[in-house]
Amino acid sequence: MHILFKDLASRGTISFRERLDLSGDLPKKGSLLNYGPLEVALEAHDKSGAAEVTGTMSIEVEQACSRCLTPVREKLDIPFHETFVRVEPQDLPDEDDEEDDDVEYVTEERLELRPYLLESVMFAIPYVPLCEEACQGLCPVCGANRNTEACGCKQDKVDPRLAGLADFFKDQT
Question: Which domain of life is it from (predicted)?
Fold first, then answer.
């Protein structure tokens, strides 16, 4: 998926409706177990030589719950808004001097959108996925899923620095 700046300037608006396979781009490891294709609906507008790209993307992802490891499927609807300005290589602003963080400067006549779409998807994937807000997770002693079964494991945790103090109160009663 790409934009040619000359083509955009002559047409004014270009619409994209595509389905992208990200199987080579997104990892299937860690909490990300599976994902579907990326549905893209974008429009590029010529704004005085700049390309303003807006629209939405959607993708279904399956992740492991961060507490109980149960697979969680979720559809992510991701808004997309980027402005691209074509400049000559010698006119690229320094990273320190960038006065507008909302603008991406590119040096090529052809703008490849895939890396920017992928970046938006990566930022939209939940960092701590949960099957439900009240998920109780796994028992740290026996590993049982506490959402489905109650285990009888003793989980009294005493700070070893205060263990002597606990013994002191046992003698008081």
Answer: Bacteria
